[in-house]
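Running co-folding for iron/sulfur cluster.
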Amino acid sequence: MPRYRVMYAKEGPARYISHLDLIRAFERAARRAGLPLAFTQGFNPHPKLSFAAPLAVGTAGEAEFADLELSGNISAGVVAKSLSGVMPEGLRVIEIRLVPDSAPALMATVDLAGYTARAVLAMSLDKEMVEKAIAEFLARPEILVERRSKSGEKRIFDIKPGIITMSAQINDDIIVLDAELKTGSSGNIRFEELLGAFSENFCIPLRGNFVLCRRALYTAGRNRQDMLW
Amino acid sequence: MNLLQQILPLVKKPARYAGGEWNVVHKDWENTEIKVAFAFPDVYEVGMSHLGLQILYNIVNSRPDALMERAFAPWPDMADKMRENSLPLFALESQRPVRDFDIVAFTLQYEMSFSNILYMLDLAGIPLLSGQRDAEVPLIIAGGPCAFNPEPMADFIDIFVIGEGEEVVNELLDVVSAGRRKMLARKEILLNAAMVPGIYVPSLYQVFYREDGTFLKIRPLRENVPEKVTKRVVKDFDRAPFPIKPVVPNTEAVHDRMMIEVLRGCTRGCRFCQAGIIYRPVREKKPETVLRQTAELVNNTGYDEISLTSLSTSDYSPVLEVIRAIADKHAQQGINVSLPSLRADHFSVGLAKEVQRVRRSSLTFAPEAGTQRLRDVINKGVTENDLMEAAGAAFKEGWQAVKLYFMIGLPTENDEDLDGIAQLAKDVLALGRKNGVPRGRLKVTVSVSSFVPKAHTVFQWEPQAPVEYLKRKQDELSKKIRDRGLTLNYHNADLSLIEAAFARGDRRLGAVLINAYQLGCRFDAWSEYFKNKLWLEAFRQAGLEPGWYACRSYKYDDPLPWDHIDPGVSKQYLVLEHKRAMAGILTGDCRTGSCTGCGVCPALEIEPFYAGSEQ
Ligand code: SF4
């Protein structure tokens, strides 16, 4: 059965759709589009739909990836066109390509994610100061955060090896923090964890809160700019 | 970066507040004359499961001169964030404050949601009391089943809509828009609204009490205001506007599926049931209409399940044909049919079998009472035989779990009736074992609620059993219903008392509601939020007692606080039915062809409509 890789954005009101609900949203959109989703066999069949990496509720995604399988051969262009017209506000199909059966699963491919956090500064802040704070932060031998397992147990985890880059920009009263973090099965750092750990030592005076966005997902390997195609 | 964007990541289930769902309607605010906010006094997931919302959303948004947006009760974590940030209650579509609308329309689905109406008004920055609102504030209207005894909410609601809203909502919008154009004062618009059949404007009526505190009468304050308000009913239900493009939630609703209403009304005549009176007479949708609307719903929503809704879907004359036709047409698209509320009989199990080809969840039957004697009193035309046959068929067909619904505290109840509940539960369990359901899998759940006398029912004159009695009987039942495979649930008796007080309450309860809200009551339909102590304190502060309302009995000729609301069914008929109940005489369903004389058809110049099964 043909497998299609969907690159899409998850913005506006759609940024609040949880991972579980996102699966349903795609399933319903496909049904509205009249696309024949392929289903798993068994007692409780569910659509063959998989995502590269779950996105935290509230974080926007500019270039997210999902694979879906259809039970009939339809050109990728037609799938893209019919799906585009039936997505809820903020879920936007960017591109769809047919991928070969042999292509590894998205989840096994994704290795890095690029994030941006934006906020309004409550008072003016010197860019060098922030840069110095970031340099000191990244120079620490370890950066410890507290995580909770599914059963609710707390444990301490070092996120430092998963931080690839981190930088800051300031334009007037807007501060923008960028980071590239390990994502996927070979290690997974949440952007909120990084922001939390950073602001523990360096307090950024904000009006309101950070608004978060995942800009891109990357594969492992030499070419870091390689998207998940 | 707007405020909402910064708050939403900090609250639970932010999709509740984000809007942007499929089929949402965005209209041009500036160029639309009348703006209505539909306000559902519970969380998003509950409100979005309510078909009435989708019906009205479709009707109002179909008008070129009007728009409707939605607002729900924010969960307490969100309310805290809104207050911290001075963000008033807003509608999801435009994110505009609810107080900027011309009309805010609440639905009164259950008494325990009343506190949430005060909560939402307060969050919206709208004065709680009708009398304190000026021209700048939206008109607050309310409809739904609890509007049939509107008095406890009379202080807070400007306009009540009694009965089915499909037609009257348009008439009301016309009155408001005409009033706007003529620059009429709020009071004049209210007066004009009161002339519309089915509209009750409580501020135009005065209530009189006797010296002993009992209710005496309610009278209009002006000559041309009607003494009685008769419910509205849609005559041609088949052609009534139906939402074929419902809003599809982005987060899982309680009923997360397509809903198609196949019939309205139920004339089985259970004597405790309010819906059975206020939605009379029975009107069925033609099968071809159901199939056409189903096909459109499938295309427009993308859901994989369709529920045939009504008060009693196994009564829908062409139910079997319709289910089969839907399966024929839509099964290859992966669409399942689901049926709510099944009758405890063999036919219903057959229906369930027809629709639940894959899933084997549990089947629910509602015998309501434990003995034949008491089932005759309440006119539940189900025999022990019916129930056993149905349960047996269910087990044979592969179901392993059965739910049984009962009520305690019913009029004339005695110990035998309670023993009967335990016995039935055990018998059903034994039947499951006999039919070879594996012991570990076999599950019989007994759900016991407490009788709440409701306005306009045959039992409206009957007292609720005292809380202590209900609790004692719950204890006794839990001692008797104890076996591997048996589970007993019962409702909070304290909550049933408050519910009963409001169900038969009068206008003085407005003060109790204000007290309760100020003491912190909200989300009272959610057991984790219901705080009995606060409610008792709220009554005490108002100098009233919940038991005085809930546990009292009325005489037939006692004036009742809801006598000015007319459901079309005559009081005489209710009296007759009450007498038959006490004598244990059953009354048949008029769908079999012989009118039992409830009076609704002649009073409202309407007839029952059955779709027939000839198709
Ligand atoms: S008036 Fe007669 S036919 Fe009409 S609903 Fe009542 S009992 Fe049935």
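Result summary
The longest strand of chain B covers residues 401-408.
The pocket of iron/sulfur cluster is lined by residues B 267, 280-281, 590, 595-601, 608 (CB under 6 Å).
Job closed.
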